[in-house]
Every structure is written in structure tokens, then in C-alpha cells.
Amino acid sequence: MAIDWIREKHSRFIKICGITTVEDAAVCADLDVDAIGILLERPGKSPKAGSARLPVELAAAISSSIRGKCQVFTLIHTERPDLLDNYARIIQPDVMQMCLDISSPTLMQFREKWPEIGIMHSLRVAPETTTTELKSRIDQLISDKILDGVILDSAKGGSGQAHDWTVSAQIVEAFPELPMLLAGD
């Protein structure tokens, strides 16, 4: 599994998202943060509309500046295989955090091409989300041998808002061998 290092953490795993500078990444590494998150695109915007939050080259500089000090997650809001490959090649993250419900064939293609990069899927725990829905999606990704882990987040990912952690607890209990991160406050 590409992200066995998560299994080694038993008490805490701290990931700081929204890193946009090499300096901020260095501060995170110096503070012994386990991982940083680099957000490239704003959800719901097309790449042609200038949706990049920061240039891919800057994301690559951030990634290389802390390589070996903490893990780098690149948050993905695209289904385009060419962009996924481009991000993997240029940024060289430890993990691609899929923030969209990307098709299994696209994820399988990515896994085959980039086996060294972990794939974690962000799943939204909205007030109307049922445990059954989340379990079904995880089961599908596990059966396709795509998933290295799950991030359970609020309905509006990256907001820092807490979600219903009782739902998350049921998911963690249902998949004890699957690395999971809980996002929100």
C-alpha cells in the first residue's frame, strides 16, 4: 500500500491544508506536522477559467522543499486523466486526495501509472448523508483495489467545520483496516 506510513501513527496525524508558499511549508515541517495539503483548483471552476489557486510549478517547489520532512497531499478537483498525470509528474506528491467522485476506471488508470502515489478519497459527511451511502462508496473503491485511505470531511470540505462524528465513528468501525483521517475542528 502506498501510504503505510499512516498506519504507523496511532495517536495523532496532523495535516494542514491550504499551504501556498514554500515558507509556510517549512514552518509546518519545522513544527513536526505529519502532512500538508496543496489545493490547486477551486471546486466548480473550469481550468480554462483560470481556476488554479496556485501555479503547478509553485506546488512542485513546495513539495520538493519539504520532501522527506512531511507528507504532501495534492487536493484534486478534476477528473481529467491528463491533469492527474501532469500533477503527479510535476508535483510528485505522496498522496493525491480526490475531492470529487472520480470514476473507478480513471482512478484505476492513475493507480497503474503512479503506484507509488497514495490515493485517498475525501468523502463528505453532510447532514443528510447516511452511513449506508458512505459504506457503499468505500466498498466500491476497496473492491476495485483503488483506495489507500479516506478523509471524512464536512459537507463543505476544507471549511474547518465539524461534521457528525457519530457517522464517522460508524465508518471507522466498519473499515478498521482502512486508514482514515477526520477533517474539521
What's the short story on this structure?
The longest helix has 13 residues, at 131-143. The chain is 37% helix and 19% strand. The protein has helices at 4-7, 22-30, 56-66, 81-91, 104-113, 131-143, 165-174, and strands spanning 15-17, 35-39, 71-76, 95-98, 118-125, 149-154, 180-182.
Could you spell the SSE succession in H and E letters? HEHEHEHEHEHEHE
- Rg over C-alpha atoms, rounded to the nearest angstrom: 16 Å
Helix content: 25-40%
Number of separate domains: 1
* Strand order within the widest beta sheet: 1-2-3-4-5-6-7
What structural category arises from helix and sheet content?
alpha/beta
- The CATH superfamily is identified as Aldolase class I
CATH architecture: Alpha-Beta Barrel
Q: On the 0-100 scale, what is the average pLDDT?
A: 85
CATH-derived topology: TIM Barrel
Main β-sheet description: 7 strands, parallel
The low-confidence parts are 45-51
Count of β-strands: 7
- Per CATH, the class reads Alpha Beta
Strand-residue fraction? Answer: 15-25%
Count of helical stretches: 7
Broad shape: globular
Distance between the termini: 28 Å
Please write out the topology.
Elements: H1 4-7, E1 15-17, H2 22-30, E2 35-39, H3 56-66, E3 71-76, H4 81-91, E4 95-98, H5 104-113, E5 118-125, H6 131-143, E6 149-154, H7 165-174, E7 180-182
Parallel strand pairs: 1-2, 2-3, 3-4, 4-5, 5-6, 6-7
Which terms summarize this structure?
185 residues, TIM Barrel, alpha/beta
